[in-house]
Design brief:
One of its GO terms (cellular component) is cytosol. The chain is α/β, with parallel strands linked by helices and 462 residues long. It has 15 helices and 13 strands. The protein starts with 7 loop residues before the first strand and ends in a 7-residue tail after the last helix.
Length: 462
């Protein structure tokens, strides 16, 4: 990894123009402390030593102009995030000061860090394995408490530990097999039954971990839910009641919503992007036509569609037309405005075609009723399509899932090889494939291009 050398610098905090009380500029590398000494003046008898915070001023080394009153944190190797010398300038917030400090660091010999390079250095220097490094990006970008919890579990090694155990078991089996190939006459016969038992357990654990892949992707990226229906069925009222806000304008006039209105929620630990769409109908209004077309596209791109109808009016030809347009997507039928029914609790007389068999929820959005039932119906839909494991407190990402899938196929091939009573040499081929795939998850056998792809999604200062 020759490109990841030298001393690097980056802004390590989110910087918003004219906002924020503190911004941090981070340096990592052999020259970090020397650069800090040239730029930072600590008055009095303050001691420059590791894991001590100094108070002082950042000054231009030539003009001696003061840029900021700041704090300096020193973390010398190996007791730092990257296991290199690290210093941090804790400056006042805002864009100008921190940009000037970064520029001074560059003038003193540092270079701008690449995305994720601090974490990459932590990985290359053995402080983190690759699962832990990836979990840092997940933790920073977590969109729900559950996503943060899973990321923290991986950061603490709860994913790496079982993967490492699987790899060790495969290595032990490989050693036993290769020993029989090389020293068959000097060793007792191979305990084939024990090896088959070990392989079965490794394969079972591999499959259990693989089951978390879809759920992990859902928790990271979230669910896109579109509320669709004809005009004036209460879609905007439903969004407002659900999000507990007035994101959408609500009137008695059909066609009020002309564009897609978005709200972000968390349901059962899953981030949900809710899209309130314009009522779908034929119209001569050019602006409304654009809104209707956007509604259709939103429904087509949604992970789940809430087909909303007016319970007081019942199923209409317009509802049937919309249903036929969106029934390629997972659907929940929302019977809204149940508060306008003579008997709100009795929904069975509604003339819904027998061919429309959808999960159904009754709501009265204007009275904030039925929202809990709606959320439960959504979670039921998610669970129906996602395999979850109650025995694991972490989830894997798609890269890890691909490697585990390779390991699974290789392990199954070993079992088939044993069943077909093929020579021991054939066992070793697939065992090595499984071991390599498990090593890739941990980062023990991974290419530079894979690392570049992983760390390119990190923020610059991490």
């Amino acid at each position: 990894m020759s490109g990841h050398i030298g001393t690097i610098v980056a802004i390590a905090t989110a910087t918003v123009p004219q906002q924020g009380s503190v911004s941090i500029v981070r340096l990592s590398g052999a020259d970090s402390l020397a650069i800090a000494r040239r730029l930072f003046v600590a008055p009095g008898q303050q001691i420059w030593e590791s894991h001590r915070i100094l108070y002082g001023f950042i000054r231009h080394p030539v003009t001696h102009a003061t840029l900021d009153e700041a704090l300096l944190l020193i973390m010398q190797a190996p007791r730092s995030y990257t296991r290199e010398d690290v210093v941090e300038f804790h400056c006042h917030g805002g864009m100008i000061v921190v940009q000037q400090v970064v520029q001074l660091c560059v003038e003193q010999g540092a270079r701008l860090a690449q995305p994720g390079e601090f974490t990459l250095r932590a990985f290359l220097n053995g402080r983190l394995d690759l699962t832990q490094a990836e979990s840092i990006a997940d933790l920073v970008g977590a969109r729900s408490p559950q996503a943060a919890q899973f990321a923290l579990a991986s950061l603490q090694g709860k994913l790496a530990e079982p993967i490492r155990q699987l790899r060790t078991t495969c290595l032990d089996i490989l050693a036993e097999v290769e020993a029989r190939i090389d020293f068959e006459e000097d060793l007792p016969p191979l305990d084939e039954a024990t090896i088959q038992t070990q392989l079965a357990q490794v394969l079972k654990t591999t499959e259990q971990i693989l089951q978390t892949a879809d759920q992990g992707e859902l928790i990271r990226t979230g669910l896109k839910v579109a509320i669709v229906g004809r005009p004036n069925v209460g879609k905007s009222s439903l969004l407002n009641a659900w999000s507990r806000s007035d994101r959408a304008i609500v009137t008695d006039l059909p066609g009020t919503t002309r564009d897609v209105v978005e709200s972000n929620l968390v349901v059962g630990g899953i981030p949900i992007q809710v899209l309130d769409t314009a009522g779908i109908r034929e119209t001569e209004d050019t602006v409304e036509q654009i809104g209707v077309e956007r509604s259709r596209r939103a429904a087509q791109n949604a992970d789940l569609v809430l087909l909303t109808i007016d319970a007081a009016t019942g199923w209409t030809e317009a509802d049937q037309t919309i249903y036929e347009q969106v029934n390629q997507r997972p659907l929940i039928l929302v019977l809204n405005k149940t508060d306008l029914l003579p008997q709100p609790a009795s929904l069975s007389p509604l003339p819904i075609p027998a061919t429309v068999t959808l999960p159904t929820v009754a709501t009265a959005a204007a009275l904030n009723q039925g929202i809990d039932a709606l959320e439960q119906a959504i979670l039921t839909q998610v669970k129906a399509n996602q395999v979850q494991s109650a025995n694991l407190d972490f989830v894997i990402n798609q890269r890890q899932a691909a490697a585990l899938g390779t390991a699974k196929v290789a392990l199954q091939q070993v079992q088939e090889t044993i069943a077909n009573q093929l020579p021991l040499d054939f066992w070793t081929i697939d065992l090595r494939t499984a071991i390599q795939a498990l090593s890739e998850i941990l980062g023990e056998d991974v290419t530079e291009s894979v690392l570049d792809r992983i760390f390119s999604r990190f923020c610059i200062g991490k």
